[in-house]
Design goal:
mainly alpha; DNA polymerase, domain 1; Rossmann fold; 2 domains; three-stranded parallel β-sheet; 8 helices; 5 strands; 47% helix; EC 3.8.1.2
């Protein structure tokens, strides 16, 4: 799983750097195929599709719903900005009961550039009609936190896995293993 995920991100970065865009699902399939081949694991098309479809069935962490409800009640507008496709994002929002808390998702499908491309992060400004300095960004991955910070978003890193901080880009001042940093970011 870790190798597949790593290869998937490599492919998104490669396509963005090369000015190409196949979309998340195509790259998830290609990266899974490459990973299975590299590990000499037999994996048919049906098995690969079943595994790729799991991105449509992601569970949120238990503290996400209450944190989003708190932010929404405080008047914050919220949206997902993700490399996942629109249909996967909508399926996950519905599955996790987040539809009433979040605005329509901002999929990189809209700009045909994966994060950390500035076009991807720029979707937040366009969607909310706000300056980047007025938009808080919560990242799951260290590289995404750095990219959002470089773009100019006040950023926090929800470092669930306790990963080592990125050395390129400097420290992310707000980083916790739960949604605490998101609440702190909203309080700034």
């Amino acid at each position: 799983m870790a190798q597949w995920s790593s290869k998937l991100f490599e492919y998104t970065w490669l396509e963005t750097a090369a000015g190409r865009y196949s979309g998340f699902v195509a790259l998830a399939n290609a990266s899974l195929r490459q990973t299975a081949d590299a590990l000499a694991l037999p994996l048919g098309d049906a098995q690969r599709q079943t595994l790729t479809e799991q991105y449509r069935k992601l569970d949120v962490w238990p503290d996400v719903g209450p944190a989003l409800e708190r932010l929404r009640s405080a008047g914050f507008r919220l949206a997902l900005l993700s490399n996942l496709s629109d249909d996967y994002l909508l399926a996950n929002m519905s599955r996790n009961g987040l539809n009433g808390l979040l605005a329509p998702p901002l999929s990189t499908d809209r700009v045909r550039r994966f994060k950390p491309a500035t076009e991807a992060y720029g979707m937040g400004e366009a969607a909310f009609g706000a300056q980047r300095s007025e938009i808080g960004f919560a990242a799951f991955a260290g590289w995404d936190a750095v990219g959002a910070r470089w773009f100019g978003y006040p950023t926090c890193w929800v470092n669930r896995a306790g990963q080592q901080a990125e050395t390129l880009g400097g420290d992310i001042p707000l980083a916790t293993r739960d949604m605490t940093c998101v609440i702190q970011l909203a309080s700034l």
